[in-house]
Structures are given as C-alpha cells and as structure tokens.
C-alpha cells in the first residue's frame, strides 16, 4: 500500500472510540517536547470477544506497560487495537505515555475476527510515509489467530527487513496461535513471550525490556534485567541475540 494509510482507520461513529482517538491525538500534540525521541514503538492489542473473560484485568496489566515505557526514556508510542466487524483504530503518536495509558482503559471488547494483518500493514505504512521517523518496534498482545499464518509471517518478515522488530506477547496457551506468533517474532527479528492474563508484573517487565533494548541495545537490556532478575526477560534476550 502507498500514500494514505488504508490499513487502520482513525475515525469512528462510536462516541467512546471517537473520544479515545481525539484525546490521544491531543496528548500527542501537547506532550512535553524534550528533544528527539529515542525510539518509536507501536503497541497493538486484540480487543475481540475471546479476550473478554479477562479483559478488565488485561486492560489494567496493559496500562501498566505504558508506565514501564515512560520510565525508560524518551519514546513515542502509538496505540492500535482491533475488534468488532472490521474495526481497527490507531491513536496519534504520544510522548506522554501516562495519559495515553489512561485512554486505553476505556476500550471495551467486541466480537469479531483477528486483524493482525492490518496491524502489520499499518506499521509498514508508517515506515513508508515517515521514513525519517521509522517504527523501531511493534509490540503485539493477543491470544488467538484467525488469519493465514504464511501471510502474517511474510508481513512480519518485511517489517524485520525494514528495521522494525516484532515482539509478540501471547495471553493464554493456544498452541496453534503460539506457533504463528513465534514465527512472526522470529521473521520480524524480535521475540515471543507468553504470559498469564493475571500476571501484571510479567507483562509490564516485558515491555520495559523492549523499551530498554530500543533505547540502549543489549547493554541497556542487560542492565534492566539485573533490576528484575526475570527468567522471562532472560528468554526474550536469548531470542534477540539469536536473531543478531
């Protein structure tokens, strides 16, 4: 795709989503400008009905991830989520992660199929339309896959080649989804990790690890892991080293 991003919409007739996007964009333009960002991260999440049983807890956990990023350094973050019938939304770029985190908790699940391909295409389009500000990492959180594995692998591989690392954090234990997610992370020069939807600290630590790596590479990631002593971060580090 070229030109205007047609993979992800930023307009909606739903008042709650319209408010979410408007507020997020306001935050992006009013956030403190302390110089160039040290990196850009797209944080994408599955908000379809399959995640509903644990969504409230998951939303809280995912909101903590923004706090983890905010402590890492100057990063620009964009939130993307999909749900319902072809609904896939992206916020503006936000440097004030705390305020964007607050907006995220308003998102509610709706029945629908996964749209991971649209998310991957969206990130690729961001890189094409803003080559001077490429996306350093895509962090995707989801529990299942309802799309062709080969197509997702191809798109993830294209992102990896372009310099955008793909990190996939799986909520739950769907084995078929795990196989696809692992393939996406490997082809995207990133890493895969699985977490229990009730383990808030694990997911927060994982995003903190990604932020550390984007800002300062393996040295910063190693230092961050020393403060956490997490086996999950250790596994993520091992995967990244194998891809380099």
From TrEMBL:
Stored InterPro entries: vWFA_dom_sf (IPR036465)
Name listed for the protein in its UniProt record: VWFA domain-containing protein
């Amino acid at each position: 795709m070229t030109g205007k991003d047609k993979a992800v919409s930023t307009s909606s007739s739903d008042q709650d989503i319209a408010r979410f996007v408007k507020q997020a964009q306001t935050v992006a333009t009013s956030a403190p400008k302390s110089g160039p960002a040290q990196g850009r991260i797209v944080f994408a999440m599955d908000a379809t009905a399959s995640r509903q049983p644990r969504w409230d807890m998951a939303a809280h956990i995912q909101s903590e991830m923004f706090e983890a990023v905010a402590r890492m350094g100057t990063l620009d973050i964009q939130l993307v989520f999909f749900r319902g019938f072809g609904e896939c939304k992206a916020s503006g770029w936000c440097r004030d992660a705390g305020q964007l985190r607050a907006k995220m908790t308003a998102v509610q699940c709706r029945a629908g199929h996964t749209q991971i391909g649209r998310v991957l295409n969206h990130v690729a389009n961001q890189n094409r339309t803003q080559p001077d500000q490429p996306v350093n990492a895509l962090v995707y959180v989801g529990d299942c896959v309802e799309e062709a594995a080969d197509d997702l692998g191809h798109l993830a591989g294209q992102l990896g080649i372009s310099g955008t690392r793909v990190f996939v954090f799986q909520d739950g234990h769907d084995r078929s989804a795990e196989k696809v997610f692992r393939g996406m992370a490997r082809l995207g020069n990133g890493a895969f990790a699985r977490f229990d939807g009730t383990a808030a600290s694990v997911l927060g630590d994982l995003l903190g690890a990604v932020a550390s790596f984007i800002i300062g590479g393996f040295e910063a990631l190693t230092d961050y892991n020393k403060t956490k002593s997490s086996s999950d971060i250790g596994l993520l580090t091992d995967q990244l080293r194998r891809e380099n």
